[in-house]
Amino acid sequence: MVTVDLHTHTVASGHGTNDTIADMAKAAAAAGIRMLGITDHGPATLCAGTPSYFRSLHMAPKERAGVHILYGIELNILDGGAVDLEDSILAGLDYAIASMHRPPRKPASAEQNTRDYLQALENPYVRVLGHCDNTQFPCDYTRIVEACARNHVIVEINNASLKPNGYHQVADVNTKDNYVTLLTLCKEHSLPILLSSDSHGHEHIGETEECEALVRQVSYPEYLIVNSHPDLLFRR
User: Going from the N-terminus, what domains does the chain have, and what CATH number goes with each?
Assistant: First the structure.
């Protein structure tokens, strides 16, 4: 059973749930989760947390309902590769995931998406690359994995993407195929990966079954899986 889930969202993400951090912690405890990451969407997401919200998180309790809580953010990678929170605030968070979402991002070519991913991966506060399986944003996985290896960024395998009718799928493109490509490249570079529920609210906390099946399929090394070795999150 997975006991670490580092990509979850509360009411402060602006959509999908009314659950508070306390609600999330109680549900995590009930699900046997020992370490929970709260990663609400960055300010460019409609109705999401403001800079002042993220600035205040360093004062929040590090343990709730017997669960160790990490406070992070899921940044938006904007057009041009910038992210939507300033470094002075990111410095006070435990970690940052960087992802592409529409909105705020507009459709772009695979080359533009790739360039913007590469720019975001240069940010020293970005520790995890979020759901780049997203078929709305085609990109060059070889260049992206090389950049992750160069910048010591962890690649996320997102359970919500892999579920049937996952919300990152378009047309007849299968996100699982994208992840097999990604995992094969990550394995070549001995790159750590993170299995995430991407739960908006408490309902799916700790759910990584689809991720686990895929990791077994490609025989990914257990010692490179952050859920089993959380210290990898803080290693550079």
Answer: 4-234 (3.20.20.140)
